[in-house]
Amino acid sequence: MKTPTLLAALFFTGFVFAQQKSDTLKTKNIEGITLKKQVFKKQSDRFIYDVASSPIAKGTNTFNLLKQTPMISSIDGKTLKIMGKSEVVIYINNKKSNMDAEALIEMLKNTPSEDIQKIEVITVPGSEFQVESNDGVINIVMKKSRNNGYNGTVKMQNEQAYYNNPSASASFNLRKDKFAVSTNFSTGSWTDREKYRLSNGNSTFKNESFGFNDDPNKNFGGSVNVDYEINKKQSLGFTYNMRYNKSFNSILDITNIQNGVLKNRTVNDEDAQTRNHSFNLNYEIKTDSLGSKLTSNISYLWFNRDKYSINETFPFYDADNNKYGAFKQWVPQIINNYAANIDYVKKTAKGNSWLMGISYNNTKTDNDTRQDVYTKASNSFVNDFDQTNHFIYKENILGLYLTYERKLSEKISGKIGTRYEMTRSTGEILGKTGFDRNYNNLLPYLNFNYAINADNNITYTFSSRIRRPRFWELNPSRTYFTPDNYTQNNPFVLASKYYNQEINYMFKNAFYANLSFNYVEDASNQVPLQGTVTKPQKDENGKIILDNSGDPIMVTTKFLRYIRTNYGNNKQLGLTLGMNKSWFKDIWTTNYSVNLAYAMYSGTVSEDPTSRPVPGQTEVLTPYVIDVKNFNISAQFNNTIRLSSKKDWFLGVNYFYGGKSQIEIGELGTRQSLDLNVKKIINNWTVLVEVYDVFNQNFSKIKGVQPDGSFNNVTNFEYPRIFSVGVTYNFGNQKLKKTREMKSANDAVKSRT
């Protein structure tokens, strides 16, 4: 496959806005001099949202503030997304947060918005950032104060979805001269409910399955961050994060119909526990007065997930090949990661910067999957050798980066860099098969920014990145809907290479356009593979049944496997148009954006990479063809309305729309969500009442049809309407400086657990 050439030029049309300059600028009088403050602006490789100057920054938390930041959205109240990006990576004060995803969201929800100075949105991160694929970065810059004292936050929240889900959290910060410590703790219980409707087949065969999944969870976690300023130039820090989740008696209940006839009912009962501990030691030294500094980290991450399930199939009538069946499955996963990195930033007197660094990650995963199947003859469970796999995966990554940033003039600036990564990995299914995978990647980066004048700014950026498979994707285990319908992980998935390009344009620090083109080699995803397995028929005692000639009687069974594998390549062209503007003396604040995209996916999966020949058994697979050319549109409209002159009552009206779009596994139907909230501020108390997805329209419905007429349809309804009441109390000195946020050396692997 060929690497795409850089886009030479892009022509913007149909994007003309008019507004008065005074509407986008905030004024502040100091001793008779008027200073103009820009709330939202483009600077070099990032968008900057000056929270301290925004009218919506009072009396809320950082998570809600991020949802109101241009180009950022949250549909479910649990995750954040930059429009047009794969995932979001959170940095705090230019350092990647040392927390797992759930702990990070809780931290953001418990950090007062008054602590935030600005939010930076980096759509194409430079070589110095540890990100993968098409990920974007959100950098949260905290206000700085050297005041001694303490502060904290206590929050109670209750959500009513299909089930009632209570939670609570608390944080505490203390600063005394050179010593600072911050802690947080959160706990909660919630039960997710999902409703499924699945269908697959062709012109002669149709299988339908419908049912539900109830998944109860109990969760608690926390962190401790200690920072000590040795002197004015040197700092030492230590961070510990932990997270525990318990999900017992998670029930998946599915009824199956074949060609209009009730066949059986499958019930899967699962118990799972997840433990996550991470440690990080950080040292920082400032090497001059210009801002140059050396930072080093040593980190350790331990992740353990234990899952046990029993899957039972109950027939609706007694006939051959439609009898009671059951199997048990143990799927443990243990991840150990040791990591270290050294980063150096060299500033020059002319304002230029050199950024350089080296990192090393050593990871070992141990996945000892066992599956036992029920036999009537012994009235017990015996081991299923084919689905029992002890998979050991080892990975070593050495990374080096070098970036040079220079301001050529008052209008022109740029950044150029590269990242070199050496990956050495081995995988072995003990006693069965294995592989060695060694590859090197040179990942260039280029950024060019031109401030045409005070009202117009344009930027071009190019970046190349790698997406390595997540560790759970490599574990060769199955998750069953029915005995013949399941998801299958794949230890043989290859890393994908991404080439990302963007042109950003900003007008009057309020309106923006983002035009992007992304190309992916060896793209991977989870694709549905249909086929048949023909094997000897066995009686209830497990013996092969013979015909009158003494030959085995063969039976054919249809299957549907969702296999995560490489399929080909994809290209995506996207255009985001948006604005962030306040009206009527900041009474009404709007954050609107529309995303237009054209996607082209191509490839074919003609074999199951996880399938191994079994004597006496024949498998026939229908090739899965991906040939997608699709235009789609999505939009979000966020409105914050101040209801009182005292600035203590606020109304939020937010709307999200996602039109029909073609993805690798079919056509994803229209999704939309109307969210409402009312906020009341009473001194240090904040009461927030929210309703997510008022009309229950934010759910997934996928229709997939192949050229030969075979089809696969999935509807997944998660009861998205949620009513939430939260009460937050902030105490202590709210001007207190936070502990220094530290980047962990093993951040690059955390998102892959």
From TrEMBL:
The keyword Nucleotide-binding does not apply. Keywords: Cell outer membrane, Membrane, Receptor, Signal. The keyword Signal applies. Its main location: membrane. It is found in: Cell outer membrane. Residues 1-18 form the signal peptide. It holds the Pfam family OMP_b-brl_3. Residues 286-729 form the Outer membrane protein beta-barrel domain. It comes from the Bacteria. This is TonB-dependent receptor family protein. It comes from Chryseobacterium paridis. The lineage of its organism: Bacteria, Pseudomonadati, Bacteroidota, Flavobacteriia, Flavobacteriales.
